Each structure stands twice: as structure tokens, then as C-alpha cells.
Amino acid sequence: MEISSGVLVFSIFLCFFASVSFSIEDYHQAFPIVEPDPGHTKLRLSREGLEAIGKITTPIAAVAVIGPYRSGKSFLLNQLLSLSCYEGFGVGHMRDTKTKGIWVWGTPIELDIDGVRTSVFYLDTEGFESIGKSNVYDDRIFALATVMSSVLIYNLPETIREADISRLSFAVELAEEFYGRVKGQDIAFEPAKLLWLIQRDFLQGKSVQEMVDEALRHVPNNDGNKNIDMPHLQRTKLCDLKDGELEPMYVKKREQLKELVAGIIHPKIVQGKHLNGKEFISFLEQILEALNKGEIPSTGSLVEVFNKGILERCLKLYSGWMTALHLPVSEKHLEDTHQSSRDRAMKVFDEQHFGRHHAKKSVEQLDEEIQKVYKNFIMGNEYQSSKLCEALYTKCEEKMDQLQVLRLPSMAKFNVGFLQCNQSFEVECVGPSKANYERRMKKMLGKSQSLFIKEYNHRLFNWLVAFSLVMVVVGRFIIKFFLIEIGAWILFIFLETYTRMFWSAESLYYNPVWHFIVATWETLVYSPFLDLDRWAIPMGVILAILILYWRCYGRRKHGSRWLLPLYNNQKSGSNRPRSD
């Protein structure tokens, strides 16, 4: 039992490996390219037949034969390919349909069409109205054959019925939607040329034109019977007949049909480009996506899928143009760029889209997608604007904090920093967040300015008091220059005594004398060329060195003539004559 199981598993593995490594060696046979799903309602690709198409590098054209089941479609294709029933497409002998899905003859016919070497494939389709299928499945087969083929032969073994007229209307609608472009531009997509092939054995004495005219004429249908039972020939016996055994008129008409097909067929064109094998397969995948998308295949669904790639390209173009913006930008600039990019994308779509009537939905979809992308840019612009303005605001706030704690308070330096912050913010902060941050900036700058002015006078007053005392010491004991000492004492007395006797500390700040002191201080402390707050310490060190040098060596070498008047250090009685 274990041995049998092992053999079974090994056999399954070999079968799987063989199926994976399967490769077509003989292309002189029919292959399925599209097959029904298990429910027989939708279609799917069959990779076996696609290999025969994918190897073609020249432009492709396809001839498809459609029609009711058991109507001789496979036999007709064999006649067009000059093949017997035993080597060509399989011909059914039973009541149910022989062909499932769509099959292709693996060896194309090479034709020279308008100087273009073209590979012509022949396609056999599953017949309409066979047992165990839904009408929507037949509609999908018909729509697929109509879109993918260059010549579509509608094979009718009997009278033209209402269902045939409906399918013809669908083919006409496809032609109206896809053939040509609006405003007379190049062909975007060329549907198949439709040939109605009506077998004369079933015309009941009428000409083909009479039959078609009668079918297209509107007549009442009292009993609602859409199908008329007609006798069938034993068509399978035709497979055994040679051309010499067939009626000469039939052979003549068959050859005329071959010439007609060869005369009207053209390579498949999509967006002005001929399709090779791989491109044809990709095109086929698009069609199947459209047909399987809805419950009932429609021209609109086909248009949507064909426009899907163009829509994505136009959306990518729009995104690229918008991405070229360096966010943040002003709201008006963003809106203007959006409108310009949208108009350009819509123009490209208008030049390339499929369809005339049903393309409106694709246009609306493109506009919706553009609006979604635009909303993302709006949010991105708001974020970048907030980020930039917040950084500028924080930078100015830090700058104001630094100005509040200057070593040497300077109103001029504060005003310069204040203006720089305000101007840089006004220029660099852009976007939707600017208005909000402008209000915050104005409030913060106003508060900083009020605080600085309030502290400025107090700090300057204290600085001047300390400076006057320092200069008293320097003038008295270091350089011994009594004018400096006297000036320092006058300043100290004015600040500490005179102001307290006559003015309050607050009223001092409005006095012209104080304004003169402030102006002198600002001139000494800050200028556009020398910021004393930054260089005070280095300059103090250099000045101290110079003073020490002069104090220790300068007076010995040069005497006292350098700075006059100086304190006389000699003792008062040293040069007086003694009196006894």
C-alpha cells in the first residue's frame, strides 16, 4: 500500500513537471487562446495557444468566424486555409458545440499588405445559443471576436434573426465609438470589418440583398417566436469531398471570398501602431478585463478599459508637472499650477482617448483622479508651509530672546534684529499657514519689543552707574588722569543724586539729557561696522594690556608729557628748601 502511494505521488509529480515544461513543437494545428471558466459565463486566457501568437514579431491581423453553433464555422475556416477537416479545425458531428472558447490556427499566413509584411491568423469561435450556456457568454464571445479581429465573418446558415440584428448593432456601436478620433485626428483603434456570409441553400429562393433587407425591416412579432426551425444538411459529409466533387459555383465563390478577405484585411492598429505578437496578447488581456468586468459586456465597459492606460499616463503627467513645484507655495500659485496642469492633461487625454460617446465617463474619472491628487498636494502644501513658517517663527523667537540678554543693551541692535526677523519672515514664509503665523509673529515681536524697551532703560541706567564708578577708580588709581575721574564723578552724581532729587526714575527716560546719554551710548556700543557687545571683552583685554604697558614702561621712557594734566606723585616737601 505504501509502495502504491509512493508511485502515485511520483507519477503526479512527473505529470506536473511535464505540464510546466511543456513547449509547443508543432504549430501546424489549432490551439485554444481563450476558454470559458468553469461556470461557462466568463472568459479566460489559455496560455497554450498564446505561445503561437507571442512568437510573432511582424504586425498581426486576425480573421475570426462567428455564428450559431453547428453552422459550419470550423468547416469554413478550413476552406479558407485550404485544409481538410482532419488536419485543420475540428468539425463536430454531435448536437453540442465542438469548439469551446476561441481557437487559433498555429501557423499564420504571411501576406504583404501595403508594403507591410503581415502575419494573418485565423480564429474559430464557440457557436452561439448552444446547450448549457447563458446569453451573456455568447455576448462576450461576440464582443471579443469583434474587437480583436481585423475581419469578422458572420456565418449564417439560415434566415437573419433578431439576435443577429442585435449583434450587428453592437458591432456598429463599437465602430462608432472606436473608429477614428474626435476632430478628425488619427485612428485610435480600428474595429473589424464585418462580412455577412449567408449560405444560399437556406435563402428560400431569395437573393442575399432581399434576405438582408427583409431582416432589417421592422415587422410585428405577434407570437413572440424568435427562432425558426429549419432543416440541416449533413454538413460533416462535406469534409470527405474534394474540390472536383464540389459544385464549381461553390468553389468559385469560395475563392472569391478568399480574395475578398485578403483585399480588405489590414494589420491590427491600436493608437496608430501595428501590434506584434506580444502586443496583441496584451491587447487581448485588456479586452478580457473589460468583458469580464460587468455582468453584461457593453461598449462603455470596453471604452473604459482601453482608456485606462491613457488615463494613468495623463494622471502621471499631471502629477509630474505638479511635483515640479517646490512646496510650499502660495495658495493662488498652487491653484494656478493645478489648473494649468489639469488643462494640459485633459488635452493629452482628448488627443489619445478611445471612444466618442462613452469616453465621457473616462473624462470624468480622470478629473476625479486629478482632484484626488490635487487634494494631496493641498495637504502637502499646508504641511510644508506650516513646517517652514514654524521654523522661521522659532528662529525669530530665539533671536528675540538673545537680544533680550545682550551684555551691553543696545536699542539700535535690537531694532536691526527686529526688522531682519520681520522681513525674512515676510519673504520666506509662504503658503496657507502664513496668515496664522503672521498673527503669531506680530504678537510675539510686539511683546518682545515692549519687554526690551522696559528693561533697556533700567539696564542702561545700572550700566552707566557701574561704568561711572569704574572710571573713577581707573582715573584715580590706574592712569591717574584727574579729568576722567572728575567726569566719572559728575556722571555718578547726576545719575544717583540729581535724578532722585528732581526726577523719578521713569521720568528720567523722557528727559532730553537722558536721550543725549542714550544716543552717546548707542554710538559707542553698536554700529553697523562694530558690535561692541561682541567685541567688548577682546577690546577690554587689549585696552588693559595697553594701560599696563603705559603704566609700567611708558612713563619711564616718555615722561609725563603724553597725558596731561596728571596727578603729581612726588611728595609735597621733597623739593622745598629746609628752614631751620
TrEMBL record:
The GB1/RHD3-type G domain, residue ranges: 57-177
Coiled-coil region(s): none
MF annotations from Gene Ontology: GTP binding; GTPase activity
Keywords associated with the record: GTP-binding, Hydrolase, Membrane, Nucleotide-binding, Signal, Transmembrane, Transmembrane helix
Record bears the keyword Kinase: no
Stretches that traverse the bilayer: 535-553
Domain of life: Eukaryota
Pfam families in UniProt: GBP (PF02263), GBP_C (PF02841)
InterPro entries xrefs: G_GB1_RHD3_dom, Guanylate-bd/ATL_C, Guanylate-bd_C_sf, Guanylate-bd_N, P-loop_NTPase
Leader sequence segment: 1-23
Keyword presence, Thylakoid: no
PROSITE patterns: G_GB1_RHD3
UniProt similarity note: Belongs to the TRAFAC class dynamin-like GTPase superfamily. GB1/RHD3 GTPase family.
Name recorded for this polypeptide: GB1/RHD3-type G domain-containing protein
